Every structure is written in C-alpha cells, then in structure tokens.
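I would like you to sit down with the record closing this message with an eye to the fold:
=====
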Amino acid sequence: MDKILFIVPPNIDYDNFVNPPDNVKRVSKRSGNFGAVITDIPLGILSLSAYVKKFATTEMRLVDFNCVLNKLESFDFPSFIEFFKDYLSNPDIANNTPSIIGISVLFTPAYRSMLDIAQCCRDIFPNAIIIAGGGRANKYV
C-alpha cells in the first residue's frame, strides 16, 4: 500500500518569522516574539486526498507547517531547514515512510520553504517521489 505525505510549507519566510518587522503582526511565545503565521484550509490537498481515497488504497498524512508553527511554545532553530529536518525526522513521521510526498505551494513567501522541505524529504526519504503543486511551485522553473 502506498503512503502519501502531503506538506504545506509555512506562509511566512524565516526572517519575518524570527524577526518580524513593524508591519507584521507578532505572536508571543516562551522564547520570544515571532511573526504571526496565517493558517488556511488546504483545499487543494483535501480535494486530492478525497479523490485518491475514492479510487486507491493508500494511507495519507498531512503536515501543515503553518499549524505546527502556531502550536509551538518556543522556537529555537537557526533556520527553517533545521526545523523541517527535525520535525520530519520525528519517529511518528519517519517510521511511516511515504512513497509519495506532495508539497502544496500557494504563496510566494512559501517558495523557499518548499525547496528546503523538498531537500529535507530527499535526505530523509530518499526513495520517495516528491512532487510540488500550487500557484508558486513553478515560480522559477
């Protein structure tokens, strides 16, 4: 049975998250003030998931890094790529090795994170097929 991991990158870049400028809403956490991360319902991923469930036997998981960042009490990582590596290496995810990884990129600030997430996934899940979609997935192709 195939295992599919859908990933939504954060809709804020690292610099605006850890050092929010004056025009960015701030959120207080135990380790300091951070840029607010906006969440939205990942309709594209939910649609793909519903379609695949109807026509195939698969196990699916979703990691929405916007929600993950909002739930954290503190953030002590030197970069998003280090955070992504740590999170995706978590046994709960790493032990359920996906055969397909889909990354949904709707907004320009998420583009760099998409590239970092793809690299982390390639390192952690070397045999997985990694695909990206959404409005910004092909921004510089």
Residues 2-11+38-133 form a domain with the Rossmann fold fold (CATH 3.40.50). The mean pLDDT is 89. The CA atoms of residues 97 and 125 lie 7 Å apart.
